[in-house]
Amino acid sequence: MASSWKKFVRIDSINCVINFKVLAMLKSYLKTALRFLLKNKTFSFINIIGLAVGTLCCLYILLYVQEQYSYDKHHKDASDIYRITTTLALTGDKHNNSTCSPPIAPTMKADFPEVLQYTRVITTDLLGAKQHLVRYKEKSFYEHDAVYVDSTFFTMFDYHFVNGVSSNKILAEPYSIVLFKPVSDKLFGSENPVGKVVTIDNAYGKHDFKVTGVVDESLGRTQIHANIFITMNSGGLGQYVRSNTMWAGNNFTNSFIKLRHDASAADLEKKLPAFLNKYGADQLKQMGMTKQLHLQPLTQMHFNMGYEVEAWKTVGRSFLYILILIAVMIQVIACINFMNLSTARASKRAREVGVRKVIGAGQADLVKQFLGESFLLSFIGVAIALPLLALALPYLNQMTQADIHLSFFSDYRVWTMLTLLIVVTGFVAGSYPAFYLSAFEAIKVIKGNFSNKVSATGIRKGLVVFQFVLSIVLIIGIIVIYSQLNYIKNKDLGFDKGQRLVFSFYTNDTQSKMPDFANDLRQLAEVKDVTSANNYLSQFVSQDHGVYPTGGNMATSIDAQNITTDEHFIKTNGIRIISGRDFHVKDSLKVLINETLCKRLGFNPQTAIGQRLFTQYPPDPLFYVEVAGVMKDFNYSSLHGEVKPFMLVYSNNPGRFVNIIASVESKDYKSLLGKIETVWHKSLPSVPFEYAFLDAEVQKQYETEITLSQIINSFTIMAIVISCLGLFGLAAFSAEQRQKEIGIRKVLGASVSGIVGLLSKDFLILILIAMVIASPLAWYGMDKWLQGFAYKISISWWMFGLAGAMAVIIALLTISFQAIKAALANPVKSLKTE
């Protein structure tokens, strides 16, 4: 027993000695690292600031991407919930929609035992009710993003209830609503609103609604965002959806089903063709349409799937991949700075390596030491980046239109991400310097020979080239994106978007005042033309009809999007008519068609005039309109897609219009808008005055591209700054290494410009090599990006030339400071030791 005890004490003592030695070694490494950093302040500053800036950019992008991928993952049954989507085919035209017809989801629940529950969401924005006038006592304001939902909505999806309790009864009562917390706060402040009655006035009429709950999104971000949730168990639109029996048309419903946990969505999808044929075959045949149903996982809804109709804003996966690539590029550029400057300063530490080897340090010990220094720098960089990120968050969030906030750092995944960032950055940045420095042979370095088997100069040149390849790719990306956005901004769309004001009317009461307001507008000298319509150009066109000429049928019909308008639309918007005539005030059942529809119908612009176009949607009777004229094709929607078959439908019924568009001419918009506001309040004294510029509305179609350009612009500047920091450090090292050579050249009569050119030449050659490598890479990437546009620029040689010139100028400005400083130095000082 005593022997065992002594053995245990001996082992414990050995462990204590080992632990003490390890701690002493770590302490020694830390002291050495700190001493070297303080002694080489310029080197340390460049590395730490480069890593800090790179880490700030990289961390924010990773947080942003994490937020985008987190949408709807907080729902308890998220993996079992699917949205029913639709593919429609009509005369060869395919339309992918994220929606389906109203009766499909409830019938699936009745027919398929694997479907446990369904719920439907109707977004009013796409159905003529963009804004809703909300009133409670003396408070009133317009609110957007209102949805009609089935009473099962809050049992399928998880929202945090601030007031009220989630259940299948919370929206069971007719004319009940649940409010998003910011809306509740505006209406009721800190007061509990449950049981209170609010009035909502919109295009569907004016009704009183009882508040049954208040929710927020504190559980997680959701794609199914709304400010007001209205029960489907109400009149108007709710009643229309509940009684709807259309299986072919009316594809405006976001329908969700929850499957049994053991059910297969793929197996259920295979049953849907027979299911659709069972209930919708006759309607589909009458309309000449084929239809397919698909199941989209809930967690994939936030990503752009190319749907023509999408209720909520999505993000493209390619956009997120580009951001991740930028994050990696920036961090790699920062790591390259560390590698280059560490190997460049190798001679400063060569004797230290030699002495350590002589007294017994192995290569593994030295690798640990230098990697430890790299991890320390990486840690310091992250420690500096975090407060900088906190300061930069408002600007970065505004740029990306995101909602990243400091509370994200309470999430363990963020700290895991930070730890990985430190470890990966530390290892990548320090690996080559560590193995390079530890490979010095002790005897040689003590004698003053600092070379090893690896060509440090060649590696450094390669890293500089790689660094500037990344920077130049980003610069070319900026040039191409800005060129495309400028092309979009200035392209002739076929209508006039400049100096056009749009006024929208969201309630039945306000819509009844539209003729008075339009007439008053016409009295203003600055107003040239005024028109009324159910849509304005660039706005999503929700109406479409299959039309066919005499002798055809719905099976051969062409699907045509359409806007209903008055006789002033063409003139006000500056649209060209190439044959026939414009609308007349006494017209009835007249349409204007675009060139694309004219061609698809088998007409030419001359033979189309007077032709009848027929359409029929069961149970409605056969209906026809007559072509009054043919319009030159114009881009009434985004340039991402080709111009589609389109027509303007004439109406002299003001009740069908919700927008007024005014063509104006003024150099003083502040004065003009003041006059218009006076006219507005004359007709609508209690309604907030709102307006929009048509050109700004057109630009909104490209928000994703604008955001991408802002992100690439900002982070490219960061990448260039980091690259230049490294180049500055290397230029300083080069000047220091060639100090005596420069002194001799000056004594022999070399000019300052000649010496500056000598020191700059090697770096400029590297930049030119980087340009040659970067150009095909950038061309390939930007050509892929441009494929998302039907109308786009051509990538030209000058874009690469401009990017190369910018890179050379930036490099020259960076290098020249050290080069000029070295060239102006007194040669006596550099030669006096010889």
Question: What is this structure, in a nutshell?
Answer:
With 834 residues, the protein is of the alpha+beta class. It contains 24 helices and 24 strands. Helix 1 crosses helix 10.
Set out the fold topology:
Blueprint: H1 2-39, H2 41-69, E1 81-90, E2 93-97, H3 104-111, E3 115-123, E4 132-136, E5 139-143, E6 146-149, H4 153-156, E7 160-163, E8 176-180, H5 181-188, E9 197-202, E10 205-216, E11 228-231, H6 237-242, E12 254-259, H7 265-287, E13 289-297, H8 317-344, H9 346-358, H10 363-400, H11 412-438, H12 442-447, H13 456-490, E14 500-504, H14 508-512, H15 514-522, E15 527-533, E16 544-549, E17 558-565, H16 569-573, E18 577-580, E19 590-594, H17 595-600, E20 612-615, E21 623-631, E22 646-650, E23 659-664, H18 669-683, E24 692-693, H19 694-699, H20 703-737, H21 739-747, H22 752-786, H23 797-824, H24 827-831
